[in-house]
Structures are given as structure tokens and as C-alpha cells.
From TrEMBL:
The lineage of its organism: Eukaryota, Metazoa, Chordata, Craniata, Vertebrata. It is found in: Membrane. GO terms for cellular component: membrane. The keyword Membrane applies. The chain crosses the membrane at residues 29-47, 83-105, 117-136. This is CKLF3 protein. It comes from Prunella himalayana. InterPro entries: Marvel, MARVEL-CKLF_proteins. Pfam families: MARVEL. Residues 21-140 form the MARVEL domain. The keyword Transmembrane helix applies. It is a multi-pass membrane protein.
Length: 157
């Protein structure tokens, strides 16, 4: 039996994701996406291009939700949602949106906060592109696994 005094006290530490997830590639990408989206959101609030602030806010909230969903293994508990496909679509749309609003912010507005938001937006585009490339490879592997069971497996039975 374990000593109750040696166990960590419940509290704020129970909300933190496990270290294994933080060290994983997916955990690091989701953390980078959340941090970059929050920084871009703050930059757009402080800039003349405040009309672009909704996209980084939504991407920040979605990345934060997926960060905690993957960290708490909700993807294993809720099988009705196709998690890799949803994550792939989120990353593709985020990369496209960040690329387009970053070009607009850098070229149209001359204040420093807009330029900073544009530069961080280009960095976020790269991070989201890496994430959707990795997620796409996982998705293709998953679909190849599922397709090998369907037509030939039914014919032999």
C-alpha cells in the first residue's frame, strides 16, 4: 500500500498535462500553436489591424482545447470523433488563415504591432504547416489500415 503522505497533493498540479505528453511531438506542436496564437492575438489587439484579432483568438482556443484533450486522452475515450481528421482540418485552415492575414498585416499596416503580428503569423503558419504534414501522414497510415480490412477482408469471409 502506498503512503498517503508521499502522494502529491491534489490541486493545481492535477490540471497540468503529464510530462510524457509535453515531451511528445504532438504536445510540443500544440503548445507552440497555443503560445504563438496568443502572442498574435495580443499583437493584433495593440495594433491598427484589430479587425484580424478573431482568427488568432479562435485558433488559440482550439489549440488549447486540443492540447488538453490529447493530454487527458479524450481522443481515446470519445471514439465518435475522428480526431486526426479534425486536427488535420484545423491545421490546414489555420495555416491558410495565418498566412493570408499576415500578408495583409505586413503590407497594409505600418505600425509596429501589426508588423510583429505578421511576423509571428508567418512563424505560426510554419508551425501549423508542420503539424498538418505530420497529422496528414498519421491520417494516411490510419486510412491504409482501415482500407486493408474492408474490401478483401469481406470477400474471404
Amino acid at each position: 500500500m502506498e503512503d498517503p503522505e508521499s502522494a502529491p497533493p491534489p490541486g493545481l498540479s492535477s490540471l497540468l498535462p503529464p510530462r510524457e505528453f509535453l515531451r511528445s511531438r504532438k504536445g510540443q506542436l500544440l503548445l507552440a500553436e497555443s503560445v504563438l496564437s496568443f502572442i498574435i492575438f495580443i499583437c493584433y489587439i495593440a495594433s491598427l489591424a484589430a479587425s484580424f484579432m478573431m482568427a488568432p483568438l479562435l485558433e488559440f482556443l482550439l489549440a488549447l482545447f486540443l492540447f488538453f484533450a490529447y493530454a487527458s486522452r479524450l481522443n481515446e475515450k470519445f471514439k465518435g470523433v475522428h480526431w486526426p481528421l479534425a486536427d488535420f482540418l484545423r491545421c490546414v485552415t489555420a495555416a491558410i488563415i495565418y498566412f493570408s492575414i499576415s500578408i495583409a498585416a505586413v503590407s497594409k499596416y505600418s505600425d509596429g504591432a501589426s508588423k510583429a503580428a505578421g511576423v509571428f503569423g508567418f512563424a505560426a503558419t510554419i508551425v501549423f504547416a508542420i503539424d498538418f504534414y505530420i497529422t496528414f501522414n498519421d491520417l494516411v497510415t490510419f486510412l491504409k489500415q482501415g482500407s486493408s480490412d474492408s474490401p478483401e477482408g469481406r470477400k474471404t469471409e
